[in-house]
Amino acid sequence: MGAWDTGAFDNDDAADFAGDLNDADPADRAGLIREALEAAADNEDYLEVTEANAAIAAAAIVASQQPGGPEVDSVYGPEFLTDGQGIELPDDFVELSLRAIARILSEESEWREQWEEAESLDEAIGALEPIRAALNR
C-alpha cells in the first residue's frame, strides 16, 4: 500500500474511491457512495480492507455534509469537496454510514485486524470519532 495512515482518505483504497467520485458524473456520485457504504454495512462475511477503506471514505463524505461536520480537507479526498462544493445525499445515508462503521470495527474485519497488528487500533478508531460524532448529531 502506497499511502497508509489513519485519516479517512489516507490510504490507496480511499484515494482510489475519491478519484472514482471525481471522474463520475455528479448525478452518479450518491449512488457510488451508497454502494461503498452498503458493501461494508451489509457484509455478513469477513470484511476485506478494500471495502472497509472505501466505506470509511464514504462515511467521511456523509459526515462532512452534516451541520458542523468535519471538512474533507485531505489532498487525497474528492476534489469537488476539497474545492468547497457540496453533494446532495439522501437522509438514510447517515444511518447507513453508522452501520458501515460499526461493521468495520467488528471482529470479522481486515481493517480492524491490520490496525491491531500495527498496534495502532486506538489511534485508527480515534480518527473515526469526528466522523461518528457528526453522524450521531
Automatic annotation (TrEMBL):
Pfam families: DUF4259 (PF14078). It comes from the Bacteria. Residues 1-22 are annotated as: Disordered. InterPro entries: DUF4259. This is DUF4259 domain-containing protein. It comes from Kibdelosporangium persicum.
